[in-house]
Amino acid sequence: MRVHFTKMQGAGNDFVVLDETRGRLGLSAAQYRFLADRHFGVGADQILSVRPAPSEGVDFEYVIHNADGGEVEHCGNGARCFVRYVRDKGLTDLNPVRVKVKHGEISLSLNEDGRVTVDMGAPIFDLARVPFDAAGQTPVPMGNFERWSLPLAAGDVAPVAVLSMGNPHAVLLVDNVDTAPVSTWGPQIERHAQFPARVNAGFLQVVDRAHVRLRVYERGVGETLACGTGACAAVVAGIRLGLLDGRVDVETRGGRLTIAWGDNAAHDAPVFMTGPATSVFEGEIDVPELA
Length: 291
What we know:
The chain is 15% helix and 41% strand. It is mainly beta. The longest helix has 13 residues, at 76-88.
């Protein structure tokens, strides 16, 4: 099967975008893995499939598959690339654009400076909905939040703040992201038994109350140059832990994202993320029949 694609990136987090507005391609998990493969396919952290609106009240649907072929719930950097794609391709002239994702709806706006702002929805703190299994553990309070101790190999313990941005996140405070144990602790946290759906592991360095540095070991991908939902989760955790103000610049290895969250008593205010979205190239590729 010959497939037309657009390669895009947002702060270095890269995507293969597929237009399924005129019909489904019907790709298998193995075929998504092929497209994401950096040696044999196009190469990407994730595959974004753009689909027509499934119901009234939204303008499109988009579906996200990780490099390992598994479907995931949400992707902030991908959301920005999505809105840039549908505008550049003339699929809509709406601004903002409302989009259905796996577990809800999001709103995306294209700014005059070319950056994209995404209403990422409210964070989720209900542990059962993250999901996170807290059986047998007592959290340690910090600020207006708490951290949970994850036992790791070699007797290490990772104190993490746990929440969801439509997908699960564990946020770990570190002194310096350059020396943080991302490559060793990241895989252990991602597949920790207390996260039944696995988790994205964020390593957060607070520079000051409006500036952080972040590295994220993403579920099903590994470390990426940027993670939009990871940036949102890290800032939300930092605010609730008492370390950050309501608007924060997040420096990732791929670029800067700006996260804004007006926390309230119910902790259910939406999170807004602003960042770049860029088309890199287009092409066609022959996708083999893979089960």
